[in-house]
């Protein structure tokens, strides 16, 4: 059961990784990886470039960047070799990091017991690359056509010194100004007509000066005697809300393909998507993605954080 759950979790994270990698146009390979003394030592650089290129990635060396990548380094991901080799075993992972040096994808660990360094690195890197080859990478260029064009064909702009069009009976008078609503068809009017003040002239002779309340509709005066504030600084609860929600009772609301879990607020804490297996769901909270499954009568949320597999018990009310 444990092995099967690990397989489901790995497949779930692979789908997320594929979506992330598809946003990047280039893979940048260094000619000398960190930890090596020479360029392309043990043919590591040429091997990595060959593996990526053969699997549909647009792969370049770091000293031969195309113009668009040179202008915008965030179009590409840089390859890094993470090595934890021992005396008898070569162990390495392929890490893809973005222009902000953030790790976007970490491959499975490749191993080799070959004594010859060239053979051992070839075998370990090739094994590590298998998890990248399984992603079926296809570059998807981001669209910039998300802007909305607003039409104002009925608007009239009067130039200084030129007479404006005559107003019809159903138009606002001079005491009204146009307040544009951000839709193509709708405009509303907000009255700008002055409102009478309840300020009394004799109040100025009062030795206890008042404080004017500046609101558009009303003006009044109140005593400005200092008042001791009883406001207390709210405690910092950043990062605690999700932990508290997961530990409290969660109520399942059925969706077309699963459930959404809400707390007593109510606030949506997590969404569960059905899988082909009973009592196993793909799960996504505000901060984590993983799986939710039932074992020994308890519902558990399993996810990966900091390279470690974490399990949290959930109190779900179906």
TrEMBL record:
Residues 155-192 are annotated as: Disordered. Residues 155-172 have a biased composition (Basic and acidic residues). Residues 173-182 have a biased composition (Polar residues). Residues 1-17 form the signal peptide. It comes from the Bacteria. Keywords: Signal. This is Uncharacterized protein. It comes from Aggregatimonas sangjinii.
């Amino acid at each position: 059961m444990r092995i099967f759950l690990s397989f489901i979790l790995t497949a779930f994270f692979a789908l997320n990784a594929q979506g992330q990698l598809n946003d990047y146009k280039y893979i940048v390979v260094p000619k000398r990886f960190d930890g090596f003394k020479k360029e392309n030592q043990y043919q590591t650089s040429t091997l990595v470039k060959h593996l990526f290129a053969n699997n549909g990635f647009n792969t370049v060396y770091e000293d031969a960047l195309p113009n668009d990548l040179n202008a915008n380094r965030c179009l590409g991901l840089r390859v890094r070799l993470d090595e934890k080799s021992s005396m008898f075993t070569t162990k390495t992972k392929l890490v893809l990091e973005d222009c902000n040096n953030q790790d976007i994808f970490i491959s499975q660990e490749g191993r080799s017991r070959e004594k010859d360094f060239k053979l051992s690195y070839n075998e370990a890197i090739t094994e590590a690359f298998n998890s990248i080859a399984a992603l079926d990478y296809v570059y998807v260029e981001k669209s910039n056509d998300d802007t909305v064009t607003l039409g104002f064909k009925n608007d009239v702009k009067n130039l200084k010194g030129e007479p404006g069009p005559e107003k019809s009976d159903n138009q606002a008078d001079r005491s009204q100004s146009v307040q544009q609503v951000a839709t193509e068809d709708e405009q509303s009017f907000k009255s700008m007509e002055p409102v009478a003040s309840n300020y009394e002239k004799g109040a100025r002779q009062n030795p206890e000066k008042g404080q004017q309340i500046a609101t558009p509709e009303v003006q009044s005066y109140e005593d400005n005697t200092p008042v001791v504030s009883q406001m207390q600084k709210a405690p910092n609860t950043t990062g605690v809300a999700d932990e508290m929600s997961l530990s409290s009772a969660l109520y399942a609301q059925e969706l077309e393909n699963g459930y959404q879990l809400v707390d007593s607020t109510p606030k949506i804490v997590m969404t569960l998507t059905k899988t082909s297996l009973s009592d196993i769901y793909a799960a996504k909270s505000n901060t984590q993605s993983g799986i939710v499954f039932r074992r020994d009568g308890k519902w558990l949320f399993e996810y990966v954080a900091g390279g470690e597999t974490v399990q949290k018990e959930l109190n779900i009310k179906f």
